[in-house]
Each structure stands twice: as C-alpha cells, then as structure tokens.
Amino acid sequence: MTKLTHQPICPKCGYDQSGIIDSWVDSCPINGSCAECGLGFAWRDVFDPVRNDLHWYAEHTQSLWGIIARTPGTLMRLVLPWYYWRSVGVEARISLRALAMWLIVLAIGLHLLMSIPYGIGAWHDQSRYYGSLSNLYQNAGIKGLIQPLIEGIGWPFVGARVDFIGSSLRLYFPITNARIARSAFTPLFPLFGMTLVWALIMLVLPTTRRRAKIRAAHVYRAALISVFTLVLVFEMHRLTLGLDLWTATPPMISNTWARRFGGVVIPLLGLWVLLFWGSAVIVGWRVRPCGLLIVLGSIASLIGSVSVFFVLSTIIGWL
Ligand SMILES: [Zn+2]
Predict the structure, then answer these.
(1) 199 Cα to the center of ligand 1, angstroms
(2) pTM
(3) Segments making up each domain of the chain, as ranges
C-alpha cells in the first residue's frame, strides 16, 4: 500500500484510523466505521477528503477568485441554516484558513459596498460646509476630492476635513470619540455573546464534548461563520447612518433607519444565530440525543448575549 500523505482520521470525531488500517493484511475493505463515534464512511473518503468537496462552497477553494465566485452560493444556503448544514455535514472537509480568508474577503467587499451609501449620506451632510464638489476642487484641488472618498470608506475609523484657507486636507479619527465608538461597536456585543457561549458550550463543557463526539475544528467552523453576523451588523450600522444622513433635512437629525436597525435587524440576526447553532447540532453534527443540548445551549447563549452586552457596554462606557 502507498504511504499516506496525511493522517487518516475520522471526519467527525478525529479518531486516528491508522491502527485499523495497519491491521489490514491482504485485503482492504471499501466501507468502514469509526470505533470511537460509530460514524460510517467509505475508506476512500478518509484517505482523500478532498474527493467530496462541494463545488459551490467558499471553504472548499484556495483561490481568491474561487472565494468570490462561491460567495453568493454559500450565502444563499446560509440564509436557511439547516439547509446549509444538510450539505456541510461532518464529512465535509474543514479548512479554517479558507473560511477565515472568506470572512476577510466578505468584510472588505461589504465594507466597500456600504461606503457608497455612507459616503453619499456624509456628503449630503457636509456639502453644507463645502458647497459643491467642483467648489471643493477649486479650493483644495485633487486633495479636496479625496475628502468624500476618505469619509465614505474610512468611517468610523478615519475621516478627513478640508481647510479652504490653507487648501489642506486634515485627517481625524472619529473612533477616538467615545460616543461614536459606542454606537459603532455596542450593536455587535449581543451577537458576539451568543456565538461565544455556544462555542464554549461545545468546546469546554466535558459532558457535551463527550456526548457530541465531534472534533474541535467543527466548532471553530461554526464559530467563524457565526462571526459573519458581526461583520454584517457593523456594516449595516454604516448603511443606516448613511441613509439617515442622506434623508435628513439639516439641521434636523433623523434616526429612522437607525431605529429600524436596532429594533428589527439585530433581533433577527440573533434568531439566526440560534437557528444556526441548533441546526449544526441536529443536522450538521447529528448529535443524538440533542433535545437537552439545544434547549440549554439556546438559553445559555441568550443569557450570554445579555451578559456580554452589559459587561462590554460598561467597559466601553468607561472610555
Ligand atoms: Zn469518529
């Protein structure tokens, strides 16, 4: 038999299968099952996990273009988490590196996309001081035209002000303003708490780990995807800010969109996180029995969400 390039492990629990393979003397079986968790598999899938890669899934590609091309298909399936987990079971090869890269690409793409509505909104607000774009150009040259660009892309980290007198461009950092930092990051806390608690339940509690019999990488995979909700909340906050600035009639400040965001979007994403982890346990990892784990996990993650929100909001409040 040819030497294996990687260690043959059970895709679900990670149990090393080399012992069983070494015991084969003159024939190799086609199918087998894991002595540790009981998962049935075809041996060729254990030897060559890439065989079953999903053609639509961003985690199963190495190239940047592949990640971009597979993003719509991946996101579409994630809308209904049980649909996603039905395809991405324990057998699907795990590549946390590809998943992390996908998350970064998604964050950058979404950020650039949301820079358009936020940039337009910010300009709508600031054109009071600068007049028109051509006025900005006449007074400060090309540096003047960079200002709306920096505002759109940079918020809440970096912004720019143009000084007509010295025709200079000056950078400032909104994030150092405690009120702005709070409004940008506080909406992330409850969703972060939910993901954190679910991941800890699956990774740290010895009873759940023993019962679930899944290797840690499965939990990391779920946690990384769950983190996407944080990116979404952060960028939707920018979108609603932009829309509010856009639709405002100065000096009136409207917060119509910000209110919808806080009251509708965040609770909906919270519900999604619960469904996502619940589906992971039932459909993806096929933990049995799973009723108690799901009930306790969901309750704990809701409590975690509130606690993390209060703790982090307090800490950020001190700044
Ligand atoms: Zn196993």
Answers:
(1) 20
(2) 0.92
(3) 1-52, 81-104+178-318, 115-176
